[in-house]
Amino acid sequence: MVMITYIEPNGSEQQIDVPEGWSLMQAALSNGVEGIEGECGGSCACATCHCYVDDTWAERLPAAADNELEMLDNVAAERRPTSRLSCQIKASADLAGMVVRLPDVQS
């Protein structure tokens, strides 16, 4: 399990033990995190799982694939340099302690 902290739009924090290999979107939906919709079920086709990865963690992630970058062009909230789709981030031991912030709107 990998501890990930989600900071919801209202500022509340939720720490979740995420099974390795699960996407951050899967964990959020399974644990009732507000601010993640995941309408496409994690197929990188809707951009409703947009998140902001804290700066200290953003550089540790693999670069976003072209299809993720294209979907990030369609996010409803402000796109930032650390914007990612949580369906494309898989939990692994090296991400233990990661913090992601959720935008105030997804669709």
UniProtKB/TrEMBL annotation:
UniProt source species: Denitromonas iodatirespirans
Keyword Acetylation: no
Cofactors: [2Fe-2S] cluster
PANTHER family for this protein: FERREDOXIN-2, MITOCHONDRIAL, FERREDOXIN/ADRENODOXIN
UniProt keyword terms in alphabetical order: 2Fe-2S, Iron, Iron-sulfur, Metal-binding
Family statement: Belongs to the adrenodoxin/putidaredoxin family.
Keyword Iron applies: yes
Location of the 2Fe-2S ferredoxin-type domain: 2-106
Single biological process term from Gene Ontology: P450-containing electron transport chain
GO molecular function: 2 iron, 2 sulfur cluster binding; electron transfer activity; metal ion binding
Matches recorded under Pfam families: Fer2
Annotated Gene Ontology cellular component terms: cytosol
Signal peptide positions on this chain: none
Lineage: Bacteria, Pseudomonadati, Pseudomonadota, Betaproteobacteria, Rhodocyclales
Protein name as annotated: 2Fe-2S iron-sulfur cluster binding domain-containing protein
InterPro entries membership: 2Fe-2S_ferredoxin-like_sf, 2Fe-2S_ferredoxin-type, Adrenodoxin-like, Adrenodoxin_Fe-S_BS, Beta-grasp_dom_sf
